[in-house]
Amino acid sequence: MSDLDDCTLLTRAIELAHRSPPSATAFSVGALVVAGDGTVLAEGWSRMHDSHDHAEEAALASLGRGWRAPPGTTVYSSLEPCSVRASRPRTCTELILAAGVERVVFAWREPSIFVDCEGAELLRAAGLEVVEVPELAEEVRAVNRHLLAG
After folding, report:
1. In what residue span(s) does the CMP/dCMP-type deaminase domain sit (predicted)?
2. What CATH number does residue 14 fall under?
């Protein structure tokens, strides 16, 4: 993927974050699972089907139980994938690793409002390519402004 493609696909993930029902206890996040040829395999957003759904989790779950990523697959997430989770047994970082995804692209590092996130570090340590696109972070903060005020 080129940098231009990464920005286009990450912008789509940010657009999906706007579909997330607002929550006082969780971020609004959008995510895509994209094949190496640029085909979008799945989309997800926070609270897509259930009040505890995370965006990456919802997107990966839509591909079926035990789905394995084809070579070159990238997950695009508006927010750094979670590494700590109280509502479900597996974090988004664990789900991405279990699926065999090779790359993760995100716009905004998760601030320590709810937890101390180490998703990017854990994914890199596992051998994934992790790309942060901070120039799009303000758009993600805007979707989550209700959590950042005051």
Report:
1. 4-130
2. 3.40.140.10
* Count of CB atoms situated within 10 Å of the CB of 52: 13
Number of domains in the chain: 1
Q: Is residue 149 part of a domain?
A: no
Determine, yes or no, domain membership for 82: yes
Candidates 77, 82, 80, 94; CA nearest to 42 is: 77
Alpha helices in the chain (DSSP H): 3-17, 55-61, 92-99, 119-125, 137-143, 145-148
Domain membership of residue 150 (yes or no) is no
**Rounded Cα distance, 135 and 26, in Å:** 22
Torsion, Cα of 10, 4, 138, 126 (10° steps): 60
**Residue 118 a catalytic site member:** no
Average pLDDT over residues 111-118: 67
Q: Given a cut of 90, is residue 17 above it in pLDDT?
A: yes
Catalytic one among 15, 43, 56, 135?
56
Unique residue bearing structure tokens 């997950």: 75
Mean pLDDT, residues 133-137 taken together: 95
- What pLDDT is attached to residue 37? 94
